[in-house]
Please model this.
Amino acid sequence: MPRVSVRAVIIKAERILLSRYRDERGDWYMTPGGGVHEGETLQEAFVRELREELDAGAVFGRVLFVREVIADRYPSPWLPAGFHQLEFFVSARLLSQPRQQPLVPDPSQVGHEWVALDSLQERLFFPADLVENFRLQQWPEFYYGLTR
Model:
C-alpha cells in the first residue's frame, strides 16, 4: 500500500518557500509537507505538517498535481527499498510568517528558505524532473506518474 503525503506549494513574489535538508549530498530542498496519518484528511495533514515544519498556518488551496515515487523503479541510496508514495501538491498561502527553525523537524531537516524560482535549477531540488514546471508555475498534467 503506498504512503500518501501532501506538499504545500507556497509562491510569493517569484520565490518559493522550501524546506531545507542536509546530509552527505549537502543541502537539498523540497516543498514543505509530509505523510498523512491514518484517519487524517489531506487538509488536516497539510495543516499539521506546516505547523511542524514551519510553525505557521496556511490556506489549503487547490490540488495542483499528483506525483508518484516508487523507489524500486528508480533505485537510489536515499530511498528505502520498497518505498512507494503518492504525493499531492497543493497551492497554499501563508497566514503567518514561518519560524526559522522547524517546530518538529523531519530527519535531516535544518530549516526552510525562500528560493527564487529562476534559481531553482541550481539547487538539489525534488522532484528534480519538475523543476521547469515549478519555475514557470505551470502544471499542465494532473498526474505526473513516476518522477525523480
In short: The two ends are 20 Å apart (CA to CA).
